[in-house]
Each structure stands twice: as structure tokens, then as C-alpha cells.
Amino acid sequence: MDDPDGAADRLVSEFRKMVSRRRYLEVLEKARSDEVPWSLVPSIETLARQILPGYQVLITTTPDMNYMIGWGGNSVTIYLPRLHRANGFLHVLIGHELFHPIVTDFFVAEKPKYRPKLRDLCQQHLAKMGVPADLFFQQRLDALLDHATQQWEKAITELMCDMGATALFGPAAIWTLSGFAATQEMNSPPTPQSQYYPPWRMRIRVVLDFLERKLGAGDLLDQLSIQLEQVGLAEHSTALKSSVSEEQMTFGSNDLASEPLRELSVQVYDLVEECISDAGDFVVAKASQFPKRWSETLQEIPLLLGRLMMNVPPSELIEGQKQESKAASMTGIVMACWLERLRLEKSSQLELDTFHRLCRLMLKAIEDAELKRNFSDWAATK
Fold first, then answer.
1. Contact predicate 224/240, CB 8 Å
2. Which domain of life is it from (predicted)?
3. What is the DSSP annotation of 90-119?
4. Contact 110, 104 (CB under 8 A)
5. CB atoms inside a 10 Å sphere around CB 117
């Protein structure tokens, strides 16, 4: 039928607009305070502004099990899994998500260097398989190169984001990643079916190495352990030392061949290992924009643990006979709560009610500390 005025096209266009807008409306709806762990929002926004200057941040929820991030232009949307709304410990993974927009700068510089190396690997692999250099050889090579490039890029992306979370939250990020990994297949190969995610065993090994080599965690944690013992928190000191050593024993293997990776994947991951050191340096430089990262707030932990053990939110630092207190940092709060959790686990005292109480104390402390910090900043201007 004739449609001289283009009514059908206009109708289709309006329908597409409605479908497109619905997506954004759903995001906004799930960003309501009764959907999001609201106590975290101001602190996440502060962290995001320092790590991603110039971006506008929206925090919303998703029915999925994973944390996610979307970005475009000057806006970032952080998706928190609704199921884990009250699990303060898992929210450390927000640090991982915040680094996704950042690592794109690394690929702009590094991808041109590694693309020819990946191409050579693919050519050698096809030749070894006896693929004839016929009319379809280039097509096969391009398909295999795309597969290898996705493996390499996904591995570097996830490893750098893991390192980013570790640069911000230190061992707390590794304990969180390790707990999350415990629900997954540890040696799952990077395939299209797994969206090319690197094996969890490798991911934990890489961040453990990053923590030690790039962040100098060994000396820092030794100093923290001594401080804990000096103030009568020997159980926390023991939990700290044993937990770090257990992670290293479980995930410290360098043998990728022991994981079910195909021959080409093993070679691609050799190239991944080749650029991990430069990737780590890049992450350290970016994380330095956040002044309250874990390595700068370790001195807070003994004071915060004292409050936690009395079931008081560890939101402020009260020293001696001083009348005024300072707001605790988010990273100090997270580390203190993790150490208390580890102490309870080691002594078989961590029951479900205790865990939920710890989560509430953590979230409440982060909220109270942010309010106190904002008030102090405001008062300083008066």
C-alpha cells in the first residue's frame, strides 16, 4: 500500500526510540536508594571521580550475579548485583570495574606491538596443522588471528582490572577475588563459550605477584603484623600471615601448561605474561591518583579493629584523649573488616549471623565516615 507521508517509517522510528529509552529508564529505576546499597554510593562516587576524572557516575543494580560497568562519552554506569546488595565484602570488586575504562589507554599503546606477534603465532599454528596455502588460507588466518587477539586482549583486560582493585584495596581485593573464584571453575580455558576470560587460578597468581613485586606488600604487611601484636591483636596478626601464605600456596604455580589450555592458547598466554610487568606499572601509576589506597591507610587498622570487636562501626579514628576524631578511610575500613572476618574464620566463630553483622558494620562505617569527612570539609571552609 502507498504511504506517501512515510507514516510507517515514522512509526518504526518512534518504536525504536521507545525501546532504546526503556533501557535507560530501567537503569534509572534500579538506581533508586531502595535498590542500591545506598551507604556505599557517596564513597564509590568519590573513588570514581579520583580514578576517572571528568566522568559522571551513575550507580544502579542488575539481576545478574556479576559486577559490571558501562561507559561512553563522559558517563559511567556501575552495575551492582542485586543479590549481593548487603554483602559489603564483595563490593570490593567495584575497584575491578572502575579500571575497565582506564585500560583502554594501555591497549592503544600496546596492541600495535603485539598484533604482529599474534599473527606470527597463528601462521605457525596453521602451518603445523598442515593447512594448505590456498585461496582460503588468508580467511582461515584472519579468523584464527581474531580468536587469538580476543584471548590476549581479554586476558590483559581482566588481569589489569584485578591489579587495579589490588592497588586500591590491597590484600582485601585478593581475598575477595579468591572467594569469588571459589564458586567458579579454577582452570577454565579461555574459549568463546567462556567469553575468553582467563583461568581464575592464573588471575589470583598474577595479583599475588603484583601485590608483592609492584606494591611491596611483604614489608608493609610485616609492619602491620607487628603493630597488631603490639596492641594485643595477636589473633588478627596470625590470621593475616596465615591467609597470605595460604593464598600463595594455593595459587602460586607458574605452570600454565598444567591448566587445560590448547597449544595456541598457551603461546598466546606467553605473550600475556610478556606484557604483565608493563601493565602492572601502568596500573600503579593510575591508582596513585587515589590518595587513600590501602598502603596509605594501614596505620588506621589497629584502631578500627578495636571498635569492630565491640560491634561498633569502625568509622572514625579516636586517639588517646583527643576531643576530635578523624574519619576512617574506606580502604582502612575494608581491611579491618576483612581481618576481623579472617580471625573469626580461623577460630571457627564465623556463623551466618556474625557474617551479616560484619557486613552491616562495614557498610555503616563507610557511610558514617563519608558523612563525617564531608562535614569536616564543609566546616573547614567556614
1. yes
2. Bacteria
3. GGGGHHHHHTHHHHHHHHHHHHHHHHHHHH
4. no
5. 16
